[in-house]
Amino acid sequence: MCTVVTEWIPGQPLRILALRDELTSREFDRPAAWWPDQPGVIGGRDRLAGGSWCVSDVRTGVTALVLNRRERREGTPSRGGLPLAAVAAGASWPERIEHRRVASFNLVLAGPSGVTAWTWDAAELCRVDLAPGQHLITSDGIDADNPRTATYAPRFATEPWRDIVTSTTPSDEPAALLVRHDVDGQVYATVFGQLITASLDRLTIESSATPWDAATWTEQTYSLAG
C-alpha cells in the first residue's frame, strides 16, 4: 500500500482511499472474508504470504491499512499480518504481533471514533492520533513534504476522490498518484484501488484492479453488526 487518504469528521461518515503499489507478478485475491479465524473481516488477500494490505471489520466499520517504508525492506513475519492484528486488537495491536521483526511500515487504523497511525522505522514505533479532517499518507509518512502530497492533497480536498483516480494515468513521475515503472526487470505498479465509506450502520467498499478505468470499479455493501 503506497497511498492512503483518510477523512474523518465527527458526526460524518469515515472515508478512505487506499491505493496499493506492488510488483505486478505478485498475485492477490480481491476483497472477501478470507480468514476463518476473523470471519467478520473483509479484505484483499496476498496469495504469497496470506495477509493483506487493507482489511475492514464489518461488525465495527474499522479499517486497517499498511504502507511500506524504506528504512528496512526485509523482515519476518510479513507486514500483511499487521492490518489483521489491528482490526482484531485495536490500538493494542503491538501486543498481538512482534513488530520489531517486521520490515519498516506505516500502519493506519481508522474507524467511527477517529484515525490513528503508527510509524515503525526499524528503530522506534511512534503513534499519532490524527486531527479531524483529511490526511494523505504515503511511505514517507503523514502529510509528508513530497511531490505526491503537494500535488494531490489540495485536489482531494476539493474534488471527488474517485474522479481524481479515474482521470489519472499510471506513470513513473515522482508525483504520480498511480505508478508504473521497471524494477530489476519486473514491473512495479498500482495494482489495486479501494474507496471505503463507513457510516454508523453501513460499510461500503468500492474497488478495482485497474483503478484508472472507471468502468472496472465494483461495489460491496455491508450492514454493520455493532
Shape: globular
Largest sheet: 8 strands, antiparallel
| Helix and strand composition category | mainly beta
Write the H/E string, N to C.
EEEEEEHEEEEEHHEEEE
The share of residues in extended strands comes to 35-45%
Overall domain count: 1
Question: What's the CATH class label?
Answer: Alpha Beta
Helix content: 10-25%
Annotation, overall tally of beta strands: 15
Arithmetic mean pLDDT: 95
Over all CA atoms, what is the radius of gyration? 16 Å
| Span of the ends, CA to CA | 28 Å
Q: Say which CATH homologous superfamily is assigned.
A: Penicillin V Acylase, Chain A
Under the CATH scheme, the architecture is: 4-Layer Sandwich
Unreliable stretches: none
CATH fold call: Penicillin V Acylase, Chain A
Oligomeric composition of the shown chains: single chain
> What is the helix tally?
3
